[in-house]
User: What shape does this take?
Amino acid sequence: MVFPDYRPRRLRRTPQLRSLIRENRLSPDQFIYPLFVMPGKGVREAIPSMPGVFRISVDQLAGEAKELISLGINHVILFGLPEKKDPMGSGAHAKDGIIQRAIKELKNKAPGIMVTTDVCMCEYTSHGHCGIILSGEVDNDTTIEVLGKIAISHAKAGADIVAPSDMMDGRVAEIRGALDENGHDKVPIMSYAVKYASGFYGPFRDAADCAPQEGDRQGYQMDPANSREALREATLDVDEGADILMVKPAVAYLDIIKSLREEFDLPIAAYHVSGEYAMIKAAAERGWIDGERVMHETLLSIARAGADIIITYGAKEMAKIL
Ligand code: PBG
Assistant: This one.
């Protein structure tokens, strides 16, 4: 049927008709909200390059969690700023480390919120790389052993999901083994299976103070030019025992989200990263775009590409308008 018999505009005439045929909807319960946790008491520090996002101390977490739950958001992902850093990143698996304290606080005071943790070393190493450096390079096999220890320490503190973001080879299998041997077989792994070496992480690296002191992360994160390699990385993580596959960043990699969606039947998460969030905020501040509308449209594009789960700094403002 073609024009004039068929007229697509018939179904766009009223808001009710548009809503009836809507193919994708966002819902607050598909969001994971990132939280930056720092030492101290009563701290709530704005992050200049991420308007609306704060670094908060452990005692502020319960209040934050209650606000999220009241908005219908059930999940957070935690990033920590430790008191001290060292070359081995030992703060990442310290029993009383910042993340371990944060998990316990949330589990005690706001048990309704599910806690995902970022399993990585870059916030804890003095050199800022995501692993242990041996003879001038991030050493894969030494690093994944430490990642196993970090995952165990998060699970012990009560983490509901662990999310390795380091991009070392073999880390999903190593973490799965470490968790299972220590009685944490119920803790799922949301693997940052496809994580690109991206300029969009800029504001996050300020927020979490984790930019590498020397060099960059191209020796372990993926080349933005590659898409077949994304399928290979994801296949490895599935075989190693990942429960959820993540693509990161999201907006500049919608094609990758879509091809993972088509290729795999595991849940797909996408990380709408700091730079992608900051660009919307910056343009909106200048009055160049309608920030709320563009945020909604952006998150819809991520869902439309095939992501089930969206990690976004815009979760709260979106939940308020959905
Ligand atoms: C690494 C990590 C990074 C982000 C999440 N986990 C930074 C990096 O790889 O350099 C970036 C998230 C964002 O930009 O919002 N632990």
Notes: Residues 118, 120, 122, 165, 201, 204-205, 217, 273-274 surround PBG (CB under 6 Å). The mean pLDDT is 97. The longest strand covers residues 31-38.
